[in-house]
Amino acid sequence: MLSNLFKITDLLLIFFWNCALLALSGAYYLLIGMGYLISGLWKGVGLLPFIYPAWKKADNFFSLRDSAPALAVRKSSGRLYKSTSLVLKRSAAARFILFIPVVLVAVYILLYLPPFYIAYRHKYQTGTASWYGPGFYFNRTANGELFIPFWGYTAAHNTLPLGTKVLIKNVGNGKKALVWINDRGPFVGNRILDLSKLAAWRLGIYEPGTAIVEIYTLKKF
Question: Which of 64, 143, 150, 171 sits a CA distance of 20 to 30 A from 82?
C-alpha cells in the first residue's frame, strides 16, 4: 500500500518538475530573446542623428549585456539549471525534498500575500459581515457545494449571482480577500455577508465575529 502510494506520489512529482523546468526554460529563453529584441531596437534608435548624443551616453547600459560578468551569470545559470534537472530526474528524494519549499511558498502566498485586486473597482455594497458558525458545517451551499469550514475563500450573499468572484475589504483594518459567492444569506439582522472561516481569518474577522466591509466587483450589478 505504502509502496504504491510512494510510486504514485513520485509520478506526480516527476510530472510537476518536468512542467516547472519546461516553464523555467521557456521563461529564460523568452527573456534572452526580449533582450536581443530590445538591444536591436536600441541600436536602430542610435542611428537617428538628433538622438545620438543622448543615446551614446545611455548605450553603456546595454553594453553590460555582453560584458564578462553578465556572460558569467548566464553560464552559471545554465549550469545550475542542467545540474538541477539531472538531480531531479535521477533522485526521488530530491524531487520530494525540493517540493517542500514550493509547497511552503504556495501556502504563504495563499494565506498572507494580498490578491491581485486592481480590476475590482466597482463598489457594490458596504455593511456588516460575519462568518459561518458550526451549525452550517458540511451542509450543501446554494450552488450544491459541500461547505467545509476552513477550506476555500467563499461567502454567502443574498443578491449577487452565485459563482461571482468579489473583493472584500475590511474597513477597520484594510485587509482584503477575493471570495466566491456560492451560497445565500446571511439571514440575521442587517448583515450583508457570511464568510467562510478561512476568508474571515484572512480579513481579520474571525476573532471579533463581525466587521464592516466593502464589497467590490469586476463589473457593475
Answer: 64
Rg from Cα positions in the chain: 26
Cell of residue 118, nine digits: 486592481
Instruction: Tell me how far apart the alpha carbons of residues 127 and 188 are, in angstroms, rounded to a whole number.
Output: 13
Check residues 26 and 47 and name the one with the higher pLDDT. Answer: 26
33 CB burial (10 A radius; 0-12, 13-18, 19+): exposed
Pair type for strands 210-217 and 154-156: unpaired
Name the residue range of residue 153's domain.
122-217
Report residue 74 CA to chain centroid gap.
Answer: 28
Q: Do 77 and 11 reside in the same domain of the chain?
A: yes
CATH code at 145?
A: 2.40.40.10
**Are both 9 and 103 inside the same structural domain?**
yes
Cα-Cα-Cα-Cα dihedral sign, residues 185, 132, 183, 162: positive
pLDDT 10s digits, 117-175: 778 889 999 999 999 877 777 889 999 988 887 788 999 999 999 999 999 999 999 99
Q: Residue 146 gets which letter from DSSP?
A: B
pTM: 0.58
78 and 7 in a single domain? The answer is yes
